[in-house]
Design brief:
The chain has 13 helices and 7 strands. It is mainly α and 297 residues long.
């Protein structure tokens, strides 16, 4: 295949990622994040209602989880990439400019879980059951959000000659240390496809194996960390390394092992004779059995 044929088959970068609406900039990155959040809230409410719960209550929980998740995601990004903000040539005020990109999923899930727990307490919903209902929607949101990286022309992988290589502007390629015209692995696309496939696997496994009691959520974490592990190893953006390996690779391994362990433990707990009676202790009695039953996605 000639260089010209490769370029013709390459994935182009967008011509722009920001549009002016009068004096206000409309950023594609923000739109992708918002679209993902909206889809996650919709799917979670639908799944909660299918289990006999109140979809409005499930949506109310999201109003706690989303802000916490955004703050946590930004904190993780800034703490693990401090040089861009506090190093030579960095500007600390840029740490607040979330619309420029930079959300760490690990911090987003951790802080988002705190917000969801608060919301579940206020709405008197089972936190564990809510996490199970949320899991596929959360992975769907992550899939949609990755297109924001494409619009920002960021977080791509190492050079490739594959026909689906990502073509980036000449100045971006040179800044990354490669000659103009170099094609790169479109890691945003890999994660988008992986996450969508993960949503399908979660919904199938939930129905096939009647997962509950936190199993659906931990399966989500296991699927995501597995994909993030190999995708992270392709990326060439600046990152902190521990023992010569990117920090997020270590995070994926550690969190993935923890998720697998939690999945096994949750499975054993749900096999106990009294598991069906204890899984939804915070939900009002009339709806407890319906919400605990994961048969309907």
């Amino acid at each position: 295949m000639t260089d010209r044929q490769v370029l013709l088959a390459a994935i182009p970068s967008p011509s722009q990622g920001v549009w002016q609406l009068g004096p206000f900039p409309v950023r594609a990155y923000a739109l992708c994040i918002l679209a993902g959040i909206a889809l996650a809230i919709w799917l979670t409410a639908r799944r909660w209602r299918a289990r006999g719960g109140d979809s409005e209550a499930a949506t109310n929980v999201a109003f706690w989880a989303v802000p916490f998740g955004i703050v946590g995601g930004r904190l993780y990004h800034v703490l693990t990439s401090p040089d861009a903000y506090f190093g030579t040539g960095g500007h600390p005020i840029d740490a607040l400019k979330i619309w420029h990109g930079g959300l760490g999923i690990w911090g987003a899930v951790a802080f988002g879980a705190v917000g969801a727990w608060i919301g579940c307490r206020r709405e008197r919903l089972s936190f564990v059951d809510y996490a199970d209902a949320l899991a596929p929607g959360l992975l769907l949101a992550q899939a949609i959000g990755r297109w924001g990286n494409w619009f920002n022309v960021e977080l791509f992988g190492r050079p490739t000659t594959l026909p689906w290589g990502l073509e980036v502007p000449a100045d971006v390629a040179v800044a990354a240390g490669y000659p103009a015209g170099t094609l790169f692995h479109p890691t945003f696309l890999y994660e988008f496809v992986w996450n969508l496939a993960g949503v399908v696997v979660i919904l199938w496994a939930e129905r096939r194996f009647r997962l509950r009691g936190g199993q659906v959520f931990w399966l989500y974490v296991l699927i995501y960390t597995t994909g993030r592990l190999w995708i992270e190893m392709l990326r060439i953006d600046t990152a902190h390394h521990v023992f010569g390996v990117r920090l997020n690779v270590w995070t994926s391994v550690i969190v993935g092992i923890g998720a697998l362990t939690a999945l096994v433990v949750a499975g054993r707990r749900t096999q106990r004779p009294d598991a069906a009676q204890t899984v939804s202790v915070m939900e009002p009695e009339p709806n407890a059995d319906a919400i605990a039953d994961p048969g309907d996605p």
